[in-house]
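Lab notebook, bench 4. The sequencing result for the construct came back, and we need a structural model before the next group meeting so we can plan mutations. Quick request posted to the team channel:

Model the 3D structure of this chain.
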Amino acid sequence: MSEPAVAERKGLGSGSAAIDGVLVVLSIAAVAVPAILIRSTPPIQPAVYSAGQGRQSVAQTPEAPPPPVEPIEYRALEPEDARAFNAKVPFVTGPNPAARPFRFAGDLDNRTRATDCLAAAVLYEAGDDAKGQRAVAQVVLNRLRHPAFPKSVCGVVFQGSERTTGCQFTFTCDGALARAYPQAYWDRARKVAAAALAGNVFAPVGYATHYHTDWVVPYWQSSLDKIAAVDTHLFFRWAGWWGTPGAFRRVVGTVEPRIEQLGPYSAAHKLPEVLAVEQEAGVLTGSFAPAALPHPSSDDPVTFLVPLDTLTPDKWPAFAQATCGERTRCKFLGWRDPAAVPARAGLAWEPAALNAMSFSYLRDRGAGVEKQLWNCQLVSRPASSCMRRAIPAPPPAAPATNIRSDLPPLTGIRRSGDTAPAPGPSAE
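Done. Here's the predicted structure in token form:
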């Protein structure tokens, strides 16, 4: 082989080695550079939604406390002025994702109470309107999964109901529950509630936690993002991180409290002692002929003064409920001795009448009251079901027997014309 050929082979060999070195370097870089990029990429920030009209929601970190739940207070505006004001509030721009499906995990008793509470909310807030009911149900479940609200369905719906102001759903504290809807309305509302608790989602309201009708303006409205309208209701979510899907991942409870206000509409919410008495008595309100039911007192249309001498005690609760019927308020006061029945309702609270009373059934659905009380001196019942006895008036004081008649009369200011008292005996 000639020298030029050998030299050429040597040159090729040197070039091949150089190329191989470059390829090795490139291979190493192909692995190392992405790793460097991954380590140096800044963390993904939570989504931020635009609040409209140039106002941008400020992202919050999940570690920040949830925003306070403010009571419902309204601006002093006439309905038409409120509608005009609400029409000028823009909807936010950006995404409005649908909420994730929710599925209640409690047992049958707790599911029944949750269904009742949710049905009450959708019925009394939206009436007999399926679309509005689904929207209200979604807001309740959104609140349930948000850490700013109670952990039970009934807790969310009846939050603040113990106060005359400050409740979150006005029907729970304004006496609206005294307005009884037909059973068919309740049946439809319970179907909507049951579907929502089984995973049904009403997507248009997204993750809304607040809403109001378009003829009022709550004070909290200006701090929230307006995201949807369903008929005459406007729906809002919190601005910043607390209004994003990541904020709605709180683990909820599976135990639902009894709500006494719902006792008249559902046995699941009646107190155990009331249920025990009803079951023992076998409450069958239709077993009494209407003609046999007593009439209300002449001075109070919701009070019944009833002799009970023809009925055994186990029939008294059924007779009381049949007498009260569907009345929102009712006082059934019964005496086993017909001679003890007072002539008027105003006399029923006198001590003698109270002490002789044998049984009472009191109902006030607006206040969530429904209870039966017994004269436990006549009928054995648990202490919690016993009447309080009236305190008898003290006997008249006996006449004084230590008055001396030999002392001079007491004298006070002498008036003109009075004779001066005779001087008493001298102290000497």
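The radius of gyration is 39 Å.
Will bring this to the meeting.
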